[in-house]
Amino acid sequence: MELKEPAIAFYKQRLTIEEYLEIEDVSDEKHEYYKGEVSLMAGTKQLHNIVTINIITSLSIKLTGKSCRPYGSDARIHIEENTLFTYPDVSVFCGELKTRNNDGMNNLNPIIIFEVLSPSTKAYDRGQKFELYKAIPSLQEYILVSPEEILIEEWRKTESGTWELKIITDRNESLALTSVATELPLMDIYKDTPLVL
Description:
- The N and C termini lie far apart (about 50 Å).
- This protein has six helices and 13 strands.
- It has helices at about 5-10, 15-25, 45-60, 120-125, 130-135, 185-190; strands at about 30-35, 35-40, 70, 75-80, 85, 90-95, 105, 110-115, 140-145, 150-155, 165-170, 175, 180-185.
- Helices cover about 25% and strands about 30% of the residues.
- It has two domains: about 5-40, no CATH class; about 45-190, tt1808, chain A (Alpha-Beta Complex), CATH 3.90.1570.
- It is an alpha+beta fold.
- The longest helix is centred in the first third of the chain and has 17 residues, at about 45-60.
């Protein structure tokens, strides 16, 4: 397979996982993979980036001294059960980082995933993507953050394996991340945006 034109190669045919990884590793763009189909991941706007950086910064501070750490959107996650490869806006891993075939690249065991919503992806993030994420055995919390309004949708896995939703819209509240025993004030998440100025 030709590797000089990865973007073109991606869209020629359905790909195996091995073909996807080979091309993705030399691509300048990020692509999501699911059951042989590949889609380009869109760029993000300024507010999206500010909120994402705020979440990573706050988590880095709050998790200092713990065995957990946050990663940004360059950390690729793979779900073995349904084949998905994707790049969440923020993910948190605790303890030993497990990767596909010990490759050090395709992470398997996030405990928390954050997606910052955008108009083009919010329906997918709330629907099909969440259903795919549910297949991650280690995942305990899935957090959707709107950069356009103060709105956080916090999904938490219960002991029985069901998912419960809590919606937060008050800028003076905090997001309680029980799986890592910490809280993120919404004022920190939305810092430097018009929503809290």
